[in-house]
Amino acid sequence: MTPGCADRAHLNNAGAALMTQGILETTVAHLELESRIGGYEAARTANDRFEAVYTSTAALIGASPGEIAIVDNATAAWHLAFESVPLKDGDVILTAEAEYATNYIMYLKTARERGVEIRVIPSDETGQLDVAALKDAVDERTGLISVSHVPTNGGLINPAAEIGAVARDAGVPFLLDACQSVGQLAVDVADIGCDFMTATGRKFLRAPRGTGFLYVRSEMLRDLEPPLIDMHGADWVEPDRYELRPTARRYETWEFNHAAVLGLGAAVDEALGWGIADIEDRVIRLGYLLRNRLVEAGFETYDIGHRLCAIVTTRVPGVEAPEVMDRLFEQGINVSVTPPSSTLIDARRRDLPDLIRLSPHYYNTEDELDGAVDALTTLRP
Ligand SMILES: Cc1ncc(COP(=O)(O)O)c(C=O)c1O
Description:
Layout: E1 9-10, H1 21-37, H2 39-45, H3 47-61, E2 68-71, H4 74-84, E3 92-96, H5 101-114, E4 117-121, H6 131-137, E5 142-148, H7 160-170, E6 174-177, H8 189-192, E7 196-200, E8 212-216, E9 234-238, E10 241-244, H9 258-274, H10 276-296, E11 312-314, H11 321-330, E12 333-334, E13 336-338, H12 344-350, E14 355-358, H13 366-379
Parallel strand pairs: 1-12, 3-4, 3-5, 5-6, 6-7
Antiparallel strand pairs: 2-8, 7-8, 9-10, 11-14, 13-14
Helix pairs in contact: 1-2, 1-9, 3-9, 10-13
The chain binds pyridoxal-5'-phosphate (PLP).
Residues 73-75, 100, 102, 148, 151-152, 177, 179-180, 200, 212 line the site of pyridoxal-5'-phosphate.
């Protein structure tokens, strides 16, 4: 049961999905326990359930529990991974056109501070990263391949497994930003062959806000030092020496939002319960259905790629996108706005304006999609 479905058509799952009653209760129950018996004491009583969050999260993405670090959001996960790759002067980062702003800002910072070069691999004729061009671009200077699986601004699914195969062949680390794909698509780190993968809880996973996780392939853990280490990530074993934890938990810090993490665990268990392959089938079908209905109603859609996911972008000509969002909200329909600055290179290349982003999840109905298209139609000047 999803309480939020009673009053609203929530088509902003790429922003933050609605929690189910079960996820909500798990989260609130732990907060209440903390208030009754104390935060440390509540944590002790829930210890087995915290461990289970790692087991479930690992199962969701085909990893082992020791390869998972639970952090506050996808950005934190991404930074921790990115900054532990020892990029140096002259190294090249290879990325995609639809790269997320936050990631690209870090490439620019690293380029300025460490003399690293950024190379954007062009898209193929469908709009996804051109794998042949990536293969040609990889050479002895390549220090990292870093790509968003699904960008924030549309239905594109970049070919993660093909990118992973190129990275493996070349022996180059591969960081996959799976923030918009985990929870809506089947994402398996062994199939993809990534070294790092980052995800958030609140989007398609339906977890509470302020949760996310990082996957680090176990072989990478031998050599990598996180940029931020505390007494949870390492043991202070001698006055002049510390030892990193053997698992990906070296990337975590001691303090975290225990209630939210248990909520994340409940969300992952629910996704596993539905079956991620079934979720993927349904969200992709709803995405295509919505695009078709928008086009039938005379709207343009802006999603590129070979196979498209449940993120759908459109606009109402003559009405600013933030105003469209506000007017739909008043009618009980949640959508969001994706500005050009969130994916600047792709937006400039395609001359994109602010777009309305509609992102259904498996719990949305076809009637809700029709209602959104009708509401957009009435807004047309
Ligand atoms: C592709 C992509 N990566 C990363 C992020 C950042 O996620 P978070 O806000 O959980 O840090 C987003 C957020 O929208 C995103 O769309």
